[in-house]
């Protein structure tokens, strides 16, 4: 996608938000994205290179998703990570539920903090072979709400991917929030080049859960 | 806020994103928002005027929030709407869970479509006095995912507020998705001028749920939305012993018939007891204790009632007819009466 994905609300004949003429061509007139395209930087995202480097030491990546909330996705992610670590694999668990991070509680790591080294951010280790990264470790007060719009959440997810020193791991389990929005689009976009093994979707038997 | 809310990631001495010098002043250099501020249009949002007009025929607005997903927020929103309509109020129910809209199913309106008139978009009516708006009515195929980033979701929420013809209604119930992100920030921003009566926060007794509820209460305090109270849902499972299934440990063989016959023969009075299980450990004090600590009203507990789950799946009211939920309906009724009483007190103050 040389000139970037055409946004759904773009005009016909959109040159692509990454193109040289983005926001400036005739077909851009009146498009809701015109100003953003005209001013945004062009070309491939340099952060993707950094992400690819970090992910080169990760053998497998698994996303844990659900349409609906409260079906036990985080419980499953935590128990999956425990199981994989119990089989002597090297495991990383990344919590991208920015507004409702459950991983610190579920891994018994409440109150822990992230440390930085010259290699990057260090995950919090439950055991030698199971490291966890979550915004939950970065909140000064666990009652603090994380009231962020999409772009800020995306920026943090990007940091989790390019700044965290996961080391050589066999599995990176990614616990997502429920739904199909910013966090989900972003994690797929950022990991597209390096590949995602697949997604496990958690549900409950209720009809309302299966619709999702 | 004349020059707009200062974003959290802005530089010190940020002039404000709505200011004339936004993005252009010296203090803007290096700020992540600099380009956006320099190019974005200034001044108040004209859509807010349109929203204010639409909301002028709405007497009360209630947000239903939760920190965590799956706690029964949408079920509560639906049953609250049924209850208010049952008391002969005019009710509107707005579903702003764009990625996971539950309202069509929970009100028995799957397959219905939105119609437009010269007055605007028409909600879908369950009853004369209960109209519903949801993106669920706009999807050609219910299996389709709504894979939208924040700005597009915000735009639709804005449309729900400025283009929907709600008519004169007493209550607008807004069912939000879990969390504290775009949808929540937007609904509060768009309704700030016209006022929100308050928010009801739904939770379960689990610690993992209460952690998120505390965040939700913090959110409400931060944005100035009064907390009408917290509801503790799924507060223990209760059902008649005669309705319970029994299985052998290990082999999972169903032995219900055997157990029930044995009870009938030897202790028939036991068939009239209620079997209760806590399900979620609330030894930490549950939502009641959390409310005391955070200084917000505790509205009550609703048990995990299989009859209520069934009513929700069928899109029916739990208060009337054949779907009357003997265990949960009284609890819900009492909670709703508390909410109405506290809103009335506020009005007279």
Automatic annotation (TrEMBL), chain A:
Is the Iron-sulfur keyword given for this protein? yes
Q: Which key words are in the record? A: ATP-binding, Iron, Iron-sulfur, Metal-binding, Nucleotide-binding
Keyword Flavoprotein among record annotations: no
- Pfam families xref list: ParA
Chain positions covered by the region annotation Disordered: 1-27
Extract the Gene3D superfamilies matched here.
Answer: P-loop containing nucleotide triphosphate hydrolases (3.40.50.300)
List the Gene Ontology MF annotations in alphabetical order: ATP binding; iron-sulfur cluster binding; metal ion binding
In terms of superkingdom, the source organism counts as Eukaryota
State the name under which the record lists this protein.
Cytosolic Fe-S cluster assembly factor NBP35
Q: Which organism is it from?
A: Eruca vesicaria subsp. sativa
Automatic annotation (TrEMBL), chain B:
- The positions annotated for binding ATP are 67-74
Supply one GO CC term from the record.
cytoplasm
GO BP terms, alphabetized: iron-sulfur cluster assembly
Q: Which Pfam families match?
A: ParA
Q: What cofactor does this chain's UniProt record say it requires?
A: [4Fe-4S] cluster
Q: Does the keyword Cytoplasm apply?
A: yes
Segments forming a coiled coil: none
Under the heading InterPro entries, the entry gives:
Mrp-like_CS, Mrp/NBP35_ATP-bd, NUBP1/Nbp35, P-loop_NTPase, YlxH/NBP35
Intracellular or extracellular location(s): Cytoplasm
Major place of residence? cytoplasm
Q: How is the cofactor bound?
A: Binds 3 [4Fe-4S] clusters per homodimer. Contains two stable clusters in the N-termini and one labile, bridging cluster between subunits of the homodimer.
Supply the alphabetized keyword list: 4Fe-4S, ATP-binding, Cytoplasm, Iron, Iron-sulfur, Metal-binding, Nucleotide-binding
Binding residues annotated for [4Fe-4S] cluster, in chain numbering:
14, 28, 31, 37
Q: Which GO-annotated molecular functions does the record name?
A: 4 iron, 4 sulfur cluster binding; ATP binding; metal ion binding
Main function: Component of the cytosolic iron-sulfur (Fe-S) protein assembly (CIA) machinery. Required for maturation of extramitochondrial Fe-S proteins. Functions as Fe-S scaffold, mediating the de novo assembly of an Fe-S cluster and its transfer to target apoproteins. Essential for embryo development.
* Subunit field text: Homodimer and homotetramer. Predominantly homodimeric.
| Miscellaneous comment text of the record | Although plant and algal NBP35 proteins lack the characteristic CXXC motif in the C-terminus, thought to be required for Fe-S cluster binding, they can bind a [4Fe-4S] cluster in the C-terminus. Also, in this linage, no CFD1 partner protein homolog as found in other eukaryotes can be found.
Write out the similarity annotation: Belongs to the Mrp/NBP35 ATP-binding proteins family. NUBP1/NBP35 subfamily.
State the PANTHER family in the record: CYTOSOLIC FE-S CLUSTER ASSEMBLY FACTOR NBP35 (PTHR23264:SF37), NUCLEOTIDE-BINDING PROTEIN NBP35 YEAST -RELATED (PTHR23264)
Q: What is this protein called?
A: Cytosolic Fe-S cluster assembly factor NBP35
Lineage of the native species?
Answer: Eukaryota, Viridiplantae, Streptophyta, Embryophyta, Tracheophyta
């Amino acid at each position: 996608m040389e000139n970037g994905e055409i946004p759904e609300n773009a005009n016909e004949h959109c040159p692509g938000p990454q193109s040289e003429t983005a926001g400036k061509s005739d077909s851009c007139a009146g498009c809701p994205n015109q100003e953003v395209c005209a001013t945004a930087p062009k070309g491939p995202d340099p952060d993707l290179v950094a992400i690819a480097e970090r992910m080169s030491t990760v053998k497998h990546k698994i996303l844990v998703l659900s349409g609906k909330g409260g079906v036990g996705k985080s419980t499953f992610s935590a128990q999956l990570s425990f199981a994989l670590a119990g089989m002597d694999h090297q495991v990383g668990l990344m919590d991208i539920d920015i507004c409702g991070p459950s991983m610190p509680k579920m891994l018994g790591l409440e109150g822990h903090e992230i440390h930085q080294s010259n290699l990057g951010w260090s995950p919090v280790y439950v055991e030698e072979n199971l490291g966890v990264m979550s915004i939950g470790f970065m909140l000064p007060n666990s009652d603090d709400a994380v009231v962020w719009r999409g772009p800020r959440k995306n920026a943090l997810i990007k940091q989790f991917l390019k700044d965290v020193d996961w080391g050589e791991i066999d599995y990176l389990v990614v616990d997502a929030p429920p739904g199909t929005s910013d966090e989900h689009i972003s994690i797929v976009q950022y990991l597209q080049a390096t590949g995602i093994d697949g997604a496990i979707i958690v549900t409950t038997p209720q009809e309302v859960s299966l619709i999702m | 806020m004349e020059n707009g809310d200062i974003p959290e990631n802005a530089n010190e001495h940020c002039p404000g994103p709505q200011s004339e010098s936004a993005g252009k002043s010296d203090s803007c250099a290096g700020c992540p928002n600099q380009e956006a501020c320099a190019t974005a249009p200034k001044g108040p949002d004209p859509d807010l005027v349109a929203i204010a007009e639409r909301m002028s025929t709405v007497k009360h607005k209630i947000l239903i929030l939760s920190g965590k997903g799956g706690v029964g927020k949408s079920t509560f929103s639906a049953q609250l709407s049924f209850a208010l309509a049952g008391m002969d109020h005019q009710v509107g129910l707005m579903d702003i869970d764009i990625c996971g809209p539950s309202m069509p199913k929970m009100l028995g309106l799957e397959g219905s479509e939105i119609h437009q008139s010269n007055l605007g978009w028409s909600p879908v009516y369950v009853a004369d006095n209960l109209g519903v708006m949801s993106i669920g009515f706009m999807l050609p195929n219910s299996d389709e995912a709504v894979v939208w980033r924040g700005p597009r979701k915000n735009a639709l929420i804005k449309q729900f507020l400025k283009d929907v013809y709600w008519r004169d209604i007493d209550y607008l119930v807004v069912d939000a998705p879990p969390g504290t992100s775009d949808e929540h920030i937007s609904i509060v921003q768009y309704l700030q001028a016209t006022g929100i009566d308050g928010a009801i926060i739904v939770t379960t007794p689990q610690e993992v749920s209460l952690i998120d509820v505390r965040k939700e209460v913090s959110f409400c305090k931060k944005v100035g939305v009064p907390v009408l109270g917290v509801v503790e849902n799924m507060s223990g499972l209760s059902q008649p012993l005669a309705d319970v299934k029994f299985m052998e440990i290990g082999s999972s063989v169903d032995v219900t018939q055997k157990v029930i016959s044995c009870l009938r023969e030897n202790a028939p009075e036991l068939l009239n007891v209620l079997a209760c299980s806590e399900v979620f450990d609330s030894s930490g004090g549950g939502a009641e204790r959390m409310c005391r600590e955070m200084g917000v009203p505790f509205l009550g507990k609703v048990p995990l009632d299989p009859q209520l789950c069934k009513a929700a799946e069928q899109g029916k009211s739990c208060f009337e007819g054949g779907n009357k939920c003997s265990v949960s309906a009284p609890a819900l009724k009492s909670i709703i009466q508390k909410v109405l009483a506290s809103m009335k007190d506020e009005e007279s103050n």
